Amino acid sequence: MEGELAHIGAGLAAIGSGAAAIGVGNVAGNFLAGALRNPSAAAGQTATLFIGIAFAEALGIFSFLVALLLMFAV
Amino acid sequence: MATEAQGAEEGGLVFHPMDQFIVEPFIGDGIVSWYTVTNATFWTALAVLAVFALLVLGTSKRAIIPTRMQSVAELAYGFVYKMVEDICGKEGVKYFPYIMTLFMFIVSANFLGLLPTAFTPTSHFAVTVVLAMAVFLTVTILGFVKNGTAFLGLFWVSSAPLALRPVLAIIELISYFVRPVSHSIRLAGNVMAGHAVIKVFAGFAALTLVSPVAILGITAMYGLEVLVSFIQAYVFTILTCVYLKDALHPGH
To answer: Which of A60, B32, B185, B198 is 20 to 30 A (C-alpha) from B91?
Structure first.
């Protein structure tokens, strides 16, 4: 029974991945909105874009970590 | 791709999508000890050899008009060099060899892992955690060596109101120690998930009704994986640069 509950928990933790997807979409979308307003400044900011995406993704990674722990460690 | 799967003999393409990540001896079978040459060892060595071939053999002629291989090597060098210089500044260039090593290893391991029946070293947490911990320890030690106790100013946000600073210090401390976790799991998680998705589509390819869709899906996912392989190596490298910048200039 406990193992089954852990699997349900892992599935619930996967919701966090969707939340991270929203965050990454927000970052990329806002970057594009800004880049289309001032395309000449966009090229210099791609590194910032990827850093922002990486940080937004980091929180999703923790939910993935929780799912992994529930699947294989609990 | 499916023939190497463990459950293939059960008839049809019945296999587990995670079977591709099993570490097993490269020749024959038996137990895996620390000295056993496994598929992980083989593909890691192949990745290192690929980097050697590209960067050492590719540029050995030093032609004025570069060959294709030399062009790729020069592009890779310039790409990483510019990234280090842009983010870390002039002082960061001293650590360029380390960052170049990381980037070239990850990118070649990722790309070699995309070959059918290949094993991807970077899909294992054991590999990426070592890479991330090495970066974390390097950067932390470097920060203390370069700045002494002033490195702790990284956690004491002097631009914030005084009452908020202890709270921010705790948050900054947690986020600092969580860095190697997210740094490593981002790479391994992305690579592993992509490969597993391709295998799941491959499982559907056995059903005649959906096989055209499944094969289209595999093709599309494969294209995405080529992109992800490069982007994840880029993200790993750029985050290393950001952490290095924090160690060199801890003031906000």
So the answer is: B185
Indicate if the pLDDT at residue B1 is higher than 90: no
CATH for A2-72 is 1.20.20.10
Please enumerate in sequence order all residues whose Cβ is within 8 A of that of B147, keeping only pairs 6 or more positions apart, or say none: B153, B247, B250
d(CA B250, CA B148): 11
- Measured between beta carbons, which residues in chain A are less than 8 angstroms from residue B181? 61-62, 65
At residue B138's C-alpha, the angle toward residues B132 and B228, to 5°, is 30
Residue B125 φ then ψ, to 5°: -60, -30
Reported ipTM: 0.79
Q: How far apart are CA B165 and CA B195, in angstroms?
A: 44
pLDDT tens-digit profile of B195-225?
A: 988 988 888 888 888 889 999 999 999 999 9
For residues B63-99, one letter each, b for 16 or more C-beta atoms within 10 angstroms of the residue's C-beta and e for the rest, the string is eeebeebbeebeebeeebeebbeebbeeebeebbeeb
Burial class (CB in 10 A: 0-12, 13-18, 19+), B100: buried
Shortest alpha-carbon distance between residue B61 and chain A (Å): 33
Helix, strand or coil, per DSSP, at residue B25 = strand
- Closest residue of chain B to A65, computed from CA coordinates: B185
Contact B231 A50 (CB under 8 A): yes
Q: Give me B108's structure tokens.
A: 């070649």
Assess contact for A14 and A63: CB atoms under 8 A: yes
Give the pair of three-digit tokens for residue B155. 């956690």
Least confident of A32-46, B4-18, B133-147: B4-18
- Chain B CB contacts of A14 under 8 Å are none
Of residues B145, B134, B127, the one with CA closest to residue B240: B134
- Name the residue range of residue B186's domain: 2-248
User: pTM to 2 decimals?
Assistant: 0.86
